[in-house]
Amino acid sequence: MAYPEPQGTEREIVQVNPTPRKPRILLAASGSVASVKFGNLCHCFSEWAEVKAVATKASLHFIDTASLPKDLKLYTDEEEWSSWGKIGDSVLHIDLRRWADIMVIAPLSANTLGKIAGGLCDNLLTCVIRAWDYTKPMFVAPAMNTFMWSNPFTEKHLMTIDELGISLIPPVSKLLACGDYGNGAMAEPSQIHSTLTDKERLMGKTKKPQKTKQLSVAIAEASSAGEEAQQQQQSQPQTPRKRGRPRKIVERTDSGEIKEEEAAEVTESQSKKLKTTEEQQQKDDDEEEEEQKQEAEAAWMGDMKKGEGQSVAPKEPPTRRTRRKSKPRKSS
Ligand SMILES: Cc1cc2nc3c(=O)[nH]c(=O)nc-3n(C[C@H](O)[C@H](O)[C@H](O)COP(=O)(O)O)c2cc1C
To answer: What SS3 state is found at 331?
Structure first.
């Protein structure tokens, strides 16, 4: 039986507002001369986020560690190994991957770009990347000599990392540290910083691809969600990109500029149509397979009858493998 609400009483809604925490940003530097600006970047982000840093061996040639914020923890390959002694000890690259809400690699060297694209992981930085949960945002700001930048490998590697959902903060043209003029210089730290803090993008007010939504989600989660939910999500294996998710196309123009476009999304109706076609195809395949099976079995029976009374080993009945002609079964 339903009881009527007592008149004149107001229902009080008590909102539990968990103590917000700052977003956790993992900043990383690789071996480009632009690593001289890494200290500056660390200071910018430390103003509003919890920051930890990772540096490759080569980047340490350029980073002035005295320029880093005093309370910043800088991790190198040394820590990866010194923090581990025996089975059961925590593994630094996994801990960092769990800890971070967002990752920013600035500068990104040609070498580390190639390693990410190829899935290689032979140092702390590339191990974090290789273990990364791509539902969390990752930004990269490449920096290299203009000849390296215009090398065909760069485009190939950029296409691959885009597939993973990594966002590119494109380099700029200027007089490079080596004396050459051209594209390949890392975007200014202020530009990198504003890419992440752009309020409109964070709030999702403008129409942006999924990656931007992920950033807003990550920031929101960082402020309110508990560790538990996040850890639960992290324990699930992540697929890099699902059907229907917007894809970003990275193109280089004749002038060497990087152009980004959002590719058309697969709409729900397109997706349904695709599914129906796949199902029909599967049905056809099954029917064809059944016919072949019957033919093969009839032939086998025939052979057996012919061979009656002879001391020859009977042929094997047709197996699934021998029944199939050439069409491979589609994986569902
Ligand atoms: C003085 C100097 C400057 C360099 N500058 C760059 C650079 O701006 N970008 C780049 O991709 N590689 C640059 N390199 C080459 C990288 O340091 C080298 O490929 C290194 O292996 C990168 O390692 P990492 O990706 O593990 O940090 C430079 C090398 C030297 C010696």
So the answer is: coil
Q: Which domains are assigned to the chain?
A: 24-240 (3.40.50.1950)
pTM: 0.64
pLDDT tens-digit map of 267-279 = 454 445 545 555 6
Question: Is 44 a known active-site residue?
Answer: no
Ranges of H-type helices in 244-316: 268-306
Q: Is the CB of 109 under 6 A from ligand 1?
A: yes
d(CA 271, CA 267): 6
Residue nearest (by alpha carbon) to ligand 1 atom 16: 31
Ligand 1 in reach of 144 Cβ (< 6 A): yes
- Residues 50 and 23: their CA atoms lie apart, in Å, by 6
**How many CB atoms are located within 10 Å of the residue 134 CB?**
16
CA atoms within 13 A on the CB side of 166: 25
Ligand 1 near 112 CB (within 6 A): yes
Angle between helices 189-197 and 38-46 (to 10 degrees): 30
| Contact predicate 287/262, CB 8 Å | no
Measure the CA–CA gap between 237 and 226, rounded to whole angstroms.
20
